[in-house]
């Protein structure tokens, strides 16, 4: 599978997860009232990170926003911060992914685009971790109160928003991992290609050297004995 196709799959997965995370923040049913142990239920309660709502038997709903940020429970404030962080990380991850993908014409050289795509993958992974952490923290509080025999107030169950948030976080993590793996595969292929070219060039130069008639460096030209032969010829005729 080519790295470009991997990047497209990663972008679709991560962007889908980011959209699910964004929709989770505005959903109402993070927790819904439980009917366990109740014979007659005239109204139902549900809440999210921003407000608390009630629906009566006629189907009319009325909601009330949380009055004060400082008066909220700590887990709600933590979930707010984690979900907002997840949305921002997913947004910037989408922007960097568009710049770093090989199918786009922006981002500079291939090496620079690979680094940007890897950074986008890391941001998507962090976005998914924040979303999973927020939903898990909220669900832990709900289940703790539900199974606590000493808790006498209204008990709640897990709402549909938590499952959507979990799904979005998992998709973001999968997309970010595929982004990072595609970049790593691209780097390994380029490195192996460079090694192959280097070895082929080295072997070609070695073959050229062995086939050529190289002259030894230390070889010295033969001594010219023409002068001594002429001297001997002269010595024979000197007394004639």
TrEMBL record:
Assigned keywords, A-Z: Cell junction, Cell membrane, Membrane, Signal, Tight junction, Transmembrane, Transmembrane helix
Main location: other
Keyword Transport recorded: no
Subcellular location as annotated: Cell junction, Tight junction; Cell membrane
Pfam families per UniProt: PMP22_Claudin
Topology within the bilayer: Multi-pass membrane protein
Name of the protein in question: Claudin
